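Case study 2.
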Amino acid sequence: MITPKFPCSRRSLLQGIGAGVALSPFVPMLEAHAQSQAPRRLVVIWTPNGVATSAASLDRWKPVGGEWDFNVGNPKDVLAPLMEVKDSLVVLDGVTNVLGAKIASHTIPPTLLTGFKLNQTGAKNTWTSTGPSIDQVIAKSLKDMGQTTRFPSLQMGVGAQGADGEHGLARSVVVFTGPGQPIQAENKPSVIFRQLFADFVPPSPTASPPMPGVKPTVDRRKKSVIDQVRGDLARLNSRVGKDDKIKIERHLVSLAELEHSLETGSSGGGVGAQPVKACAKPADPGAPLTDLRPTMTAQMDLLTMALACDQTRIVTLQFLNSFSSMRMPFLSSAGNQSDHHGLSHGGAPSLGIIEAQNWMSGQVAALIKKLKAIPEGSGTMLDNTAVMLISEFGNGHEHDSSYLPVVLAGGSAQWKTGRVLRLNKLPHQNVLLSLAQFMRLNVSTAGDPNYCTGPVPGLV
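Prediction:
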C-alpha cells in the first residue's frame, strides 16, 4: 500500500488556507527546498570492449573544442548522438584505471565500479573483486540512513552473458556486494517487470491519506509463508558448510526486508517512497525478446519507471560483456563484420566498434531525454539523477585501461553540466567518490584509498 500524496501544490495549499498573498514571496523558497530534498538517484551504464582499436583512434571518442563549447569532430563519432543533450553532460577526458592497467586483459571489469584490486580464486584463471562496488556501497548507506526503497538496487542487462570456464564471472560482472560476492545482471525485461511491477499499484492522486497512527493491514497469508520459509532456512543453517551459511544469511536478510515491506505497506515503494507524478505502471514487455534493440528499449522504459515510481534509486545497466560473442546485425557492414569483442580488434581505425558504441550512445541519449521530460519539484528528474556511461577500456584492441572513456549526465542539482573536463590521469576511484557524494554520502574516499585522491576536480 502506498501513502498517497495530497493532490495540490504548495501554492494552492497556501491559498486554500488564506495565506496565499501573505506567503507567496516564500513559495519559490519552499519549492527550492523541495528540490533540494528530492531523492537522489544513480544510473551506471557499462558498455564493454572499449571505444577504439588504437591510441590514435581514441580521437573518435574524445570531444573537440573548449570546456563549454565542445563537440564531436565527426558526426559518426562515438559521442555524436549525445550532442543532442550536451547541456546535460560532463565528459571526463583523462580518467585512468590504475588497477586495470596492471592487468591488461578482459578480467578488468570487476575493478571498474569497485575501485579495488582483483583476487585470483580457484585452480583456473578466475578472478573476482576484493571489495564492494560503489552502487552497493551507496545502497547500503542509504538503507542505514533510513532511505528505504522497495529494491535497494537493480541490476539490468541487455545481452549480458554469464560465466565462462576460463575467467569465471570476471568478464561479465561489475556489481559486487562484497569481496567475491558478484551480482549478475538480469537480461529479460519480462523478469524485471514481474519483480518491479507485477503487484504494483501506482499512487492515486485522489485517494485519501491514511489516518495518523493507523498502520496498513498486513497480508497474514504472505507473512505466514515468510515465517515458514524462515524456519526452514534456520533448520538448514545448522547442517551446511560455511559458504552455504553465507548464502542462507543473505536469504534471511531478504526475507526480513520483504516482511518489513508487508508491515509498512510498502508494496508500491519503500518506507518514505517519493514517486513523481509521472509514475505509472508500464506495459508488460511479454515474451523474452531476442533482438538487442527492443530489449534495450524495454529495459530503458522499465528503468525510467522504476526510478519515477521510487521502486529503487540505484540501477546498473550492462550492455553485453567484455569478450562478448554477441553480434549487432542491425548495424552496417562495418559494425556487423564480427561479434562485439571482435569489433574491438578490427584494426586501426576500426569503424565497427565506433559504430557499435555510437549506437549505444544513442540509447543513453534517449534515456537522458526520458528523465529530462519528467518534472520533479521545480526542475526535472534528471536534475536529481546521476548517470554514468563507462567502458573498461579506451583502446580495446590493446586491452588498455590507462584511458577510461567516462561520460556523466544529469546531476545538475549538484554538478555544473554542459562541459568537458580535461583531466590528467585522474584515478577512476575519484569518479566513484563523486558519485557517492552526489548521493549525499558523507565520505572522503571510494575504492582503494591508496589511489583515491578526492572527488573529480571542478565537477561541482
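Confidence is low (pLDDT under 50) at residues 1-35, 206-218, 263-268.
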